[in-house]
Amino acid sequence: MKRLGIVVIAFFIFGLLWYYRTHPLVSKVRLRGATITVEVAATEAQKQKGLGGRAQLPQESGMLFPYDHKEQYNFWMRGMQFPLDFIWIDDKTVADLTRNVQPPRGNVIPIVTPAVAVDTILEVNAGTIDRLGVQIGDTVEFLDR
User: Fold this and answer.
1) Quick count: other Cβ atoms within 10 Å of Cβ 65?
2) What residues have CB less than 8 Å from 10, skipping those under 6 apart?
3) Chain-centroid distance, C-alpha 60
């Protein structure tokens, strides 16, 4: 009976791990009155891959990179096929903005870094910052985090 309990618990844990590997965490962010549906890059592997390898990103969508400490994180465009805007967030406040970062051309992989230390990064389609009128100092609301 004890072995059966261990097997059931192990099966549950592996099932849970499989689910989270195949179903990314999804949340919502409100910024300047717009609600953006985001995939949360929670693991180091998800953060390294980011949006690389995808052909596109739906409008009003993005990827959120939360960290447990503030730093001037470097982000690369490895494997990207479309341009991005980066919204650098420090404690629920827009701290810096990087617009229209282009995907790699040849062997040159763009790397972007905020001007200040941040704890969260939001990647969205290029043009989103200007379309929404996002500015440094804007408040970011995390709806499902």
Assistant:
1) 23
2) none
3) 13
DSSP strand E in 21-60: where?
25-31, 34-40
Q: What is the pLDDT of residues 68-99, one digit of tens each?
A: 999 999 999 999 999 999 999 999 999 999 99
Cα distance between residue 42 and residue 32, in whole Å: 24
DSSP code, position 71: E
Domains and CATH numbers, the chain: 25-142 (2.60.120.1140)
No. of H helices and E strands in the chain? 3, 9
- CA end-to-end span of the chain: 39
Has this prediction a pTM greater than 0.85? no
For residue 129, report the phi and psi dihedrals to the nearest 5 degrees. -55, -50
Cross-strand bridge partners of residue 105:
108
